[in-house]
Amino acid sequence: MQLPHMDLWSPAFKNGEMIPVKFTCDGDDISMPLSWNGVPGGVKSFALIMDDPDAPMQVFTHWVLYNIPPTLASLPEGISKEKEVPQGLQGVNDFGEIGYGGPCPPRTHQPHRYFIRLYALDSMLQLRGGARVGDVRRSMEGHVMASAELMGRYGRKR
C-alpha cells in the first residue's frame, strides 16, 4: 500500500544539494531548520530519522526525534542535545550521543547522502527519551500514516 506523501524541506538547502558546513562536524554541528506540510488528518505525533546510507560499515544514524507534537509544522535550527526538548523526545545517534550529530564522512570518501525522513503517526510512541533508532522503528510499525523525505549531501575536503 502506498502511503500518502507529505512535503519536507529546509530553508538551508534544497533536496539533493550540499548541506551547509554550519550543520556538519566541520561547522557548528547544529540541527538544520525543517518545515513540512501535506499532513493527513488524525496525526497524533511525528517521528524524524536522519541517516547516512553511504557510511563505510552500515547505515549510520545521525538524528532520532520522536513524539513531535502534531501541532508543529517546522523545527527550528539548533535544537538542544537533550532527551526532552519542546519539539519532542530525542534518541541516541550512532555517535553514541543524544540528539543531532551532523554529517561527518571520512575525508577519503566522496560526498555522502543524508536522508531526513519524517513520519506522521497515528499514535504517540511509548518510549522514553534516549531510545535507539531500532526501538523507534519497531514502535512506529503499523502506525505510519504518511511520510516525507529530504536528501542532502556532504563531503569533507581531503
From TrEMBL:
Domain of life: Archaea
Gene3D superfamilies: PEBP-like (3.90.280.10)
InterPro entries the UniProt entry points to: PEBP (IPR008914), PEBP-like_sf (IPR036610), YbhB_YbcL/LppC-like (IPR005247)
The protein, known as: Phosphatidylethanolamine-binding protein
Organism of this sequence: Thermocladium modestius
Lineage, opening ranks: Archaea, Thermoproteota, Thermoprotei, Thermoproteales, Thermoproteaceae
